[in-house]
From TrEMBL:
The keyword Repeat applies. This is WD40 domain-containing protein. It comes from Ajellomyces capsulatus (Darling's disease fungus). InterPro entries: Diphthine_MTase, WD40/YVTN_repeat-like_dom_sf, WD40_repeat_dom_sf. GO terms for molecular function: diphthine methylesterase activity. SUPFAM superfamilies: WD40 repeat-like. GO terms for biological process: protein histidyl modification to diphthamide. Coiled coil: none annotated. Pathway: Protein modification. GO terms for cellular component: cytoplasm. Keywords: Repeat, WD repeat.
């Protein structure tokens, strides 16, 4: 068993409001967006207390030499920010999910090719008819899956940007009342606006849906379609399968026709509940044959390798010490074949994952799949915690890895390689920069 490294902060700053989410900018890797969530209560002698939610989005620059974080720009908001993600199609565009049943889109304005200096508001889209129903999580439609035809093994966490892809764009958003909706653009303009976008409402239970994740792979019917996984507060993992209308050839048929395509919804947990509490993170790893393998995080503090197929099952699990709120693949490593006595060569594939674990802080884990002649198609899975950062004194809801300099993970596992991370905690309003060797 590997000794768990304990990392220490290189720089710490404190915000005026609690940080709820953060993400580095793909086109300017030294810059990151931090969203905040402030709940204020007021009361008078003649009335009961009222709650007001406000927030900010803040642009910071990380100096990778001094490790200092410098605030570049801040925008005050009349609502709180639950989630933030950059677009996979335009790396200067990002969206936030808000407490006011809306999604707002922003862009970064650059003073030079690598130096954004201001946040520009583009539009705000109302995504629920009840303004008091918060939008909890947002996931962009995946770039490589807007057209059917991507066959074989698929990685949903790979990054890539190309202006030559189909113009259809959009996002899924989940809510506290159990609804999940997809909003997508339409031809010919493909504008992100309230009037021009189409909404697809997906069924669910009347409980918080904490997470959604798109993936293109084999469905329970055995066909390759666009899938949307969602996890709710009851611990139910649900998959929404989007079926093309059959127009076009098999490899390049459009997923959208006349602005819509039908969705079929299945509760993956039917026949056996595999999560002991609400599902708070879903990370599709790949599809191989008829099996799609996911990583899931839960309030029950477990990270699980989860096989989505005809008989859904847990392939491995590890308790991380705190609710597993967010997961992110740092890099993948394809290991050399391992010669085993008395058996065929075994190949292994590892995922290095950053996990935000609420009251337990941050974990870096290695998730390894070994496949050989005598193993199942899904392989033998192991989860190992390599490092942790525990200086946060309240809920760690957001973490990310700096991806500047050389490609992150190219030397991972070697003595000289290290990761530079930024993580936050909510109630103590703390943002930390730290480094770890893995």
């Amino acid at each position: 068993m590997t000794n768990i490294q304990n990392s220490q902060s290189l720089y710490t700053t404190f915000l005026e409001q609690p940080p709820s989410c953060l993400e580095f900018c793909p086109s300017a890797p030294d810059y990151l967006i931090i969203g905040t969530y402030l709940l204020s209560e007021s009361s008078t002698a003649n009335s009961t207390g009222t709650q007001t939610k406000t927030g900010t989005i803040q642009l910071f620059r990380l100096d990778p030499e001094s490790f200092q974080l410098t605030q570049i720009h801040k925008t005050l908001l009349p609502h709180a920010v639950f989630d933030v993600h950059f677009s996979p199609r335009d790396p200067s565009l990002f969206a936030i999910a808000t407490s006011a049943a809306s999604v707002s889109l922003y862009s970064l304005e650059y003073s030079s090719p690598q130096n954004p200096h201001i946040i520009i508001h583009l539009t705000t889209i109302t995504v629920h008819e009840n303004p008091s129903t918060p939008s909890l999580y947002l996931s962009w439609l995946p770039l490589s899956h807007l057209t059917a035809g991507n066959k074989g093994k698929e990685n949903s966490h790979a990054h890539g940007y190309s202006p030559d892809q189909l113009s259809t764009d959009g996002f899924a958003v989940s809510f506290s009342d159990g609804r999940v909706s997809i909003f997508h653009t339409n031809s010919p303009s493909h504008d992100f606006s309230q009037d021009s976008m189409t909404e697809i409402v997906l069924p669910g239970e009347p409980v918080e849906v904490w997470f959604t994740a798109f993936h293109y792979g084999k469905s329970l019917s055995g066909k390759e379609n666009l899938l949307l996984f969602s996890g709710d507060d009851f611990g139910v993992l649900r998959v929404h399968e989007f079926v093309a209308d059959g127009e076009g050839d098999e490899k390049h048929r459009p997923l959208w026709a006349e602005g819509q395509f039908p969705a079929k919804t299945t509760d993956v947990s039917v026949g056996g509940k595999h999560h002991g509490a609400g599902i708070t993170a879903i990370l599709p790893l790949f599809t191989e044959g008829s099996d799609t393998v996911l990583l899931t995080g839960s309030y029950d503090e477990y990270l699980r390798v989860y096989k989505f197929s005809g008989q859904a099952s847990v392939l491995a699990e590890e308790r991380l010490g705190g609710g597993v709120w967010r997961l992110m693949v740092i890099t993948e490593v394809e290991n050399e074949p391992l010669a085993m006595e008395g058996s065929s060569d075994i190949r292994s594939h590892s995922y290095f994952v950053l996990a935000s674990c609420m009251h337990a802080g941050v974990r870096i884990v290695r998730v390894t799949c070994s496949v050989g002649k005598d193993t199942s198609a899904a392989g033998v899975w192991e989860i190992e915690t390599l490092a942790q950062f525990t200086e946060h004194e309240s809920m760690n809801y957001a973490s990310d890895v700096w991806r500047g300099g050389t490609k992150v993970g190219t030397q991972i596992g070697k003595e000289s390689d290290s990761l530079l991370c930024v993580s936050s905690s909510f109630y103590d309003k703390r943002v930390c920069v730290w480094k770890v060797k893995v």
